[in-house]
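Section 5.1 Outputs to date
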Amino acid sequence: MNLVTNSQGLPIDQNGSVIGPSNPAGLPQFKDANANGDLFDDSYLKDTRLKPMPHPGAVVKLDRYSVVVPPVTVGPIAVTAAVYYQSVEAVVAQKFLGNLADLNGNSVLEPCVLGGLCDGRKPNVEPAVVEGAPPVPMTVRNWVIAVDGVPIAKTPPRVATYPAPSASNAYQDLVVKVFFSKPVQGVNAETFTLTDSQHLRVPASVEQIGDGTWGLFPSRVFLAGGRYTACLKAGVCDQFGGCTPRDMEWTFTVSHVRGEGTGDTSVPLGFALGVTSPSSASAATKH
């Protein structure tokens, strides 16, 4: 928006020469439209980022919206709110993220965030990347709204896992995941754990990373090749008292070669269960 051009709208260098085939080394010039010494902040059509404290623009007034639920809706209704964070300089965006670059040349930006535009490919690397890396979910929260006149079914949430039980050749930088069929509470680093082939617990953090998805992030990032066992303790409950009745364990094998592995690392939208459901797989349960 602040590029210096001639009367024909062509970019010119500091000598007024058009930058083009006859002047390929000419450097574009930019106007400091707001006279604050920053040439690049004037080039954005709109920048919604907050500035750091205590500078002006560090505080923003929130807009409030209303969602009207049609009267024929059968409840309960699940609501998910997610806050994503991404910090990167433009010069390294394509190299490290690529999510603001048209990498496949189809003239469509495809960040693949919460069902955003994608070309249908499944990610086959960890962390999940299709065209560029999505911003990192910093906070994800769920609420459930009961609908008057609709009985509440206190059924246990259904659970699916990644990797699938007995999966082989998982990525070394694996993020073990559990997927739920409804909003739940009680998933944390004590109830969702990982142990190695020596039965030693792998230090890890556990965070909600999608509507119904929790991820286990090993502290050392890269796991050694071999056999691992993930465990989800009983007592993960929805907001109406429906709880998982027993512990669930499943085993899988991690590749011995860094950079190699297989798996669908994507996070499903909503509460659609993920890779495989323990009810139809060989996950062991403990009463």
